[in-house]
What does this fold into?
Amino acid sequence: MENIHSIKINSLDIPTNVFFSPINPGYCVNGILSKEFKDFFIERSGLDIGICYIGNVSLLTNWSSNINTAVFSQNKSVCWSALASEIKKNGSYAGIQLAWKPEAIKMQKEFVTGDVLGQLVYFRQFYDSFDQFDQVSTLFSESISQAFQDGFQVIQLHAAHGYGLSLLLSREVSRCENPRETKGARLIRQIVDKLLKREGILDIRISLYEGINDGSDEWAYKTRLFEFFQECGFNLISLSNGFYNIDKNMIYPVKQDRTAILKEAETLAGTYQDMFWNVAGNMEFVLQSRKAFPPNLTFSLGRQLLSDPKTILKIRQHRESEINKCSGCNKCHYYSYGLLGIQKCELEII
Ligand SMILES: Cc1cc2nc3c(=O)[nH]c(=O)nc-3n(C[C@H](O)[C@H](O)[C@H](O)COP(=O)(O)O)c2cc1C
It folds into this structure.
């Protein structure tokens, strides 16, 4: 049984249903793309990767997580177009994840916070004081249109991991039982209403479980939120987990923990068949199992494609023994270790 296959989303024929997960590799200097940055994504395009996403591209310099993060507005259109075109030339669709880290929120270096309640108070202060709907929505919608014009065929809004959109959409942070009444829903509505150009795939990434509480209330709430996204015209909903300032292990599950939200992703794809879904977090194990999944479910690989960009190709060609497996060495977590960009992987210790 082959679970890697081509897929058609919003009339785009994507070579496979396995994508390079949005990754921010660092390497930029004051938001400007470096050669190392561009080569990183070019090296992870083609090779049976359906969509190659450039991760965490901040819309403005002061919305950036750190100075080594790419800033959309700091780079000329020709520069983005050239990168998108290289990715396409190699055979993947070019995706970009647009992000907003509010100035008021500082991203922690620690993997796990010792003070969940303190973080919640901090997030709620941001939520309660947020009133810049026009500024933020205009910037998002103009950048989405620009990115489509620059040649990206897939635009993902970063609404996961404790970034601005995710905080404004969160049940725990907003204290709203109805996701449509959150400030985040109001902002998303304004963003899509202002869109002038929409010719590819509009995608939104969200953390299914945030880690602020035990998660028991999140499923029903998030299901209603996904129905709202569908009404807003998103073509793809990408599921991740965790908040950066709470527990990073939920974002990047340790390899032994395997696939934290696969069951939920399968259920959503089976229930909402008009929507396309994506799931990340140790998915290389699932693909190698060759188990069949709903046809509208897609997968993302992050760390495994850092370790071996040819992983998908090798799985498809039944050359699993040749895969350089991610050893979970954590050298890719440059920010937490105070480094400027992703470091080379350590080989798997067998
Ligand atoms: C070094 C590194 C950088 C990442 N950067 C981003 C990012 O910019 N945006 C994002 O949504 N997720 C980011 N992630 C999370 C990945 O997209 C992915 O969801 C996560 O690593 C789990 O998938 P995996 O088990 O295949 O690695 C990053 C992960 C790593 C390891």
